[in-house]
Amino acid sequence: xxxxxxxxxxxxxxxxxxxxxxxxxxxxxxxxxxxxxxxxxxxxxxxxxxxxxxxxxxxxxxxxxxxxxxxxxxxxxxxxxxxxxxxxxxxxxxxxxxxxxxxxxxxxxxxxxxxxxxxxxxxxxxxxxxxxxxxxxxxxxxxxxxxxxxxxxxxxxxxxxxxxxxxxxxxxxxxxxxxxxxxxxxxxxxxxxxxxxxxxxxxxxxx
Length: 207
Prior knowledge:
Layout: H1 7-19, H2 23-32, H3 46-54, H4 58-85, H5 90-105, H6 118-128, H7 130-147, H8 150-167, H9 178-190, H10 192-200
Helix pairs in contact: 1-4, 1-5, 2-4, 3-4, 4-5, 4-6, 5-6, 5-9, 6-7, 7-8, 8-9
């Protein structure tokens, strides 16, 4: 079969291209007139959108932050849902999940820079392992309320997803947890600067 007519390859390319769309950057530029890559943590994720836009338009900041989370999650889920409708295997669905997160973190539209993968990871996990993801989201919500530090709350929520998936008989419907672990590794790797700041006591809180 020709390379570019292989359904798996088509879905992998779509996953990367759609995963690479920097919604946070686009929303902040369009509606707030700011470039989040030049301010704050320089991330394109919701936390930096919220932090940067809040400096000039507090009322708009929360709306754009929520919109960024939703769109980043949806872009992770949408290709998987389409692939499901086409009857693709679970192995292919998990490969799409990994590639979507990679696209967000290393966007082709931003010179292979990008965000930290939390919302996109949420989107793919919610489709593929919904119960562990809901548990992880509850962990995140509790930690965010108590700690008010986005990075550590996100990472603790992610750990909650992984532990819950393992407890619930792995939950992946494939023979290996490797895709879930790889997505977790990517997100932790992208958070290394945050982890360093946490250790130094310099990580900022979200008001």
